[in-house]
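Appendix B. One record, verbatim.
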Amino acid sequence: MIWTSRLGSAAAWGPEDTVSEGGERKSTVEELTRKPDAALPAPRFLYSHSVLAGLPGGQLVRLQQSAKSLSLKERHVLFRRGDPPDGCYWLRRGFLKVSVASNRGEERILALLGAGALVGELALFDTLPRDVNCHALSECHVLHISRESFLACLSEHPALYEHLVGVLTAQIRAVAAEAVIGTFLSVRGRVARALLNLALHIGRDLPDGFAEIGFAVRHSDIAAMASATRESVSRILSEWRRDNLLNVSIDGKLVVHKLSLEKEFLAEA
């Protein structure tokens, strides 16, 4: 799911996509007053392979109880590329963007994550600096799981190492698949796939095969997901809107017809 941008309103879906982009906030995350947490969504990560998925329920509860609860405001930074690793983050509420940027300021969105997702889990296994950026796209609550807590769970359940090998292998295969798609799939196919991934990971199913994306995504966001220009994305989305493959809700959220987009993707694959 190879996927800044200030989120816009319905106006962002006009021909010019003119919603302005403000400066990035520099504030750090804030620790919340510790309160008993309600049951969290099941962990899920990019491609649905999670390093926590194989942990026994009791160990997940222990990790949750030992985790720090953090709050981020929209567009605040969770971590940047080059930051020292300090564990991973379990997203309880809100949306996060994971991205990389070139020296010229060009951005590539690697993932948009919703509630239940994990981010930064490589820090559980090594002490190398972060290699991606992570920003809040909305107000977020996250749980910080330290490397020490995670390794303590592994020491008590060494059989989990086999599970972790499978998880990491699946993620490597997924990255290789993305490289193939980025090389051979047309722009139209990449845009269709980006929208399908949005619907899958942060969408809400509606009647008649439609899905509503969880927040108002701009053309430039989709362009960064699909490795395309904003102009190309705007042209394709306008065409699909005329053909009723997608629409925009009154509060600016994109509504897509999943089956039609799947056909568009397969036609270009």
